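Run log, item B.
One chain of 471 residues. Sequence copied directly from the ordering sheet:
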Amino acid sequence: MRPRATTFGWIGLVMLVVCSALPALRDPPYWDANVYVHEGRWAAAHGLELDAWRHFPDVLKPPVFAAIVLGAAETIDRAAGTTPLCAHLAVLGFALALLFAVRSLVRALGGDEGQALFAGLFCALSPLYLAQAGLALSDLPMTALATWAWVALVRGRTRTWFVLSALAVLTKESAYFLCVPALVLEWLRAGRSPAVTARRLLVYAWPGLVLAAWLAALHGMTGHAVPRLNRDALGAHFILDTLIHQLVEGGRYILVALAVIALGGRGTGDGRDQAAWATAAGVLALPFMFPAPLPRYMLPGLPLLCALGALAITPAAAQRVKGGRALVVAFVVAAEVIGWFGPSWHANGGHHLDSNLEYRRLLRTQRAVVRAVAAERPRAVAAAFPLYFLFEDAGVPVVLAGAVTPTDALCGADYFVDADQSAPVDDARDRVHLTPWRSFGPRGFSVRVSRIDCVAGAAPRTPPAPPPSTR
């Protein structure tokens, strides 16, 4: 492929990603993004006040993205009155950085510029990548840092590896999976020698050591290294989910097939071949090292698969079938584009919808609800996660509709919001008298708004006592 063609190709990919993210730049946070934005706002308000962080009213995320990046973005947005523009721009910056990390990885594995462009195309058109480029979540920033860290290690730049892999782990804990491909790479480079040197041990154990240091710091600040919420979201029973997300959904099954072809003719004597096998080890290791149910948790495997898959699209292979190179690329692109919208293969909760652009439809429904209710100028609204945050961001007084919310607080609200895609509100709903007002969205994704009239109903029940604090 000619240099000018690849240059225009990369410009086109950048424009594609930017244009796809433009509609989301002023979107309010979607689902779990509310948690990250909340921590960023806390960081902007409290900075390095450790006493304040000890009483942070949520589960603390690793600090690089949730506190530092989003804290800086919130500070700028507050000064300019552009919330949440800077948070989205920060994520878009990481999205573009990931594209060029994929290019560098292909080149480090021995691929040419044409193959690097194909890998970038596969990544840019992935449904999960496009969705995450518009969301203030840590998965895409971590993936960009982890991919650049892996490129550094493949190229033998150990110091850069230490810095970038540490930043990746301190962006999201799952980046510690890099220990496995690093171990495989060091083992192959040493001629499969089982001997352990201090340097080799430090190289492949480094992401795990950084994770241990973060968990120790978290325990010192909050009294627990792994909160119950996180423990419940991890487990061997999620491995089937993670394998589907890593190897099947979003057109990945084609990338897996191409990766197998690319690895089929490689030995382990050449340094680039060793790096390719180690990269494949990283793809397989992630689902087992971070068995959690959400599709976005497997985002770090995408750039590795894109790079390996692109290596199979060689000029020699294309010569065996006339137009074969273009045909394979078109097949991958079609499989990915088909997955831009639509349900997940096995779960369709709101937190799964951010695996493709489908989440924007639900977000539009939620925003329409907030606008309609706000126009009624209520004293307050009772709503559960995640709609609670949307009302709060819109300046509408809101009460969290939960099992431990006092009935008096619920009765002080004028409207009650009950959604198919929200945290359970059954207990709160049963304690007040509701009159249906309006319904929004299709079945399965509907949001129902009712008027609250505690006088007309039976005497409200007293909620159960809140559980003892774990902090």
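Observations after the first pass:
- Confidence is low (pLDDT under 50) at residues 457-471.
- The beta strands are 381-383, 398-400, 415-419, 434-440, 447-452.
Flagged for discussion on Thursday.
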